[in-house]
Amino acid sequence: MGIYRRILSVLKNDIVIGDKKFEFIAFSSCQLQENSVWMFASMNELSADSIREWMGDFRNIRNVAKFAARLGQSFGSSIETLTVNSYEIEVIPDVEIEGEDGTKYVFSDGIGKISVEFARIVAIDCNLKDYSFCLPNSVCRL
């Protein structure tokens, strides 16, 4: 059995280690780069399905990559650095376009802006030497 088939089999059919059966839950984008996923061995009333249900209702997301990304956000390795008060946040509407078939496309989902000064403060708080993670016009992934 090739490696692809083996991995697919584990994701679809779970994996048994000792007396525990581990079910696939989700993966984060970092985990994709590290070839890893989150799996869980059910216990009592807690299962992989109940964990995914607790994470939120993602049924309206039809794009597989976006669906996986939303699940994976619960398992991300982001580090909280600074608190931003609600009055310091400006909500900018997403760029949305409706296709000829009526499908709605969102081009700015997950995009955020940060001021150069706030980026500097975050960099200092994270012990980074610079804050070049920001793109032109101070747009970066938050």
From TrEMBL:
Q: Which is a GO BP term held by this UniProt record?
A: regulatory ncRNA-mediated gene silencing
Q: Which UniProt keywords apply?
A: Nucleotidyltransferase, RNA-binding, RNA-directed RNA polymerase, RNA-mediated gene silencing, Transferase
Q: What reaction is this protein's catalytic activity? A: RNA(n) + a ribonucleoside 5'-triphosphate = RNA(n+1) + diphosphate
> What Enzyme Commission number(s) appear in the record?
2.7.7.48
Which GO terms label this protein's molecular function in UniProt? RNA binding; RNA-directed RNA polymerase activity
Q: Does the keyword Phosphoprotein apply?
A: no
> Pfam families attached here?
RdRP
The record places domain RDRP core at 3-129
The job of this chain, per UniProt, is described as: Probably involved in the RNA silencing pathway and required for the generation of small interfering RNAs (siRNAs).
| Family to which the UniProt record says this protein belongs | Belongs to the RdRP family.
Q: What is this protein called?
A: RNA-dependent RNA polymerase
